[in-house]
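Hey, can you fold this one?
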Amino acid sequence: MPIDAAKALAAEPRSGVITWDHKDVQLYHLGIGAGAHPDKDSPATDPDELRYTLESRLHVLPSFATVAGGGKPGVTGGLSMPGVEVDLSRVLHGGQSLTVHRPLPVAGTATATDRIAAVYDKGTAAILVMRTEVADADGPLWTNDARIFVRGEGGWGGDRGPSRSLDAPSGEPDRTVERPLRGDQALLYRLSGDWNPLHADPEFAKLAGFERPILHGLCTYGITLKAVVDTLLGGDVTRVRSYATRFAGVVYPGETLRIRMWRGDGAVRVAVSAVERRDVPVLADTVVQHV
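Sure. Predicted structure:
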């Protein structure tokens, strides 16, 4: 069996040192659309956008944690763990959650520890939960969980795992914004470390069942968090405590994201859809916890 759940769960965690600096942060922010705000006349020089792009004013959007260090993201990193041997063309990113233990520094050196935290049997597919815990000399920085969906690898009678679906938010959203994507959005975003050919190579994308290369789910994830921070959290990245989503559908570069937000008590519920495809959902069960 390509996935040996017992072996994957029993494997020793893998640890390594990661480093990043302001250039990595700036490249990530540009990859998720910073400096191109559609509602501003001169977004590249707008003070609110310069907080993401100018080193002398830089603050770090928490979702940068998903690419910090420039190594393999949780999706492809999890496929190299003991007990896991699958075809990359059958793999999709099912969901992502991030817990921020303290604000991310503009530059840093830290230890990242990876392990398979759970393996679920969904019948026609398997789900791996790849957990990455990152700490520096001052203590924990963040914890990332990537849910890796592997088509055709279920059916061994294992634990199905918890349901990830939340009740839909009630009432009209408090804010709705639209974020147009560049045609080369995936090519720019992949420079932060996710080199999966699914996001660049048309032939590979067709092999995986898509009409053309798709945008990284984590790019949509970052774009959405930036919209929430800029719109409902006063532009203050340090207010974010956690951020979780389920990837409900694909996004193609050049499309427009419609991001709906509902305020709650210490949380923002979010739904994201693709405008040009009749608002088909692309992010669901999305929650930003904040102070």
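The two ends are 45 Å apart (CA to CA). Let me know if you want another pass with a different chain boundary.
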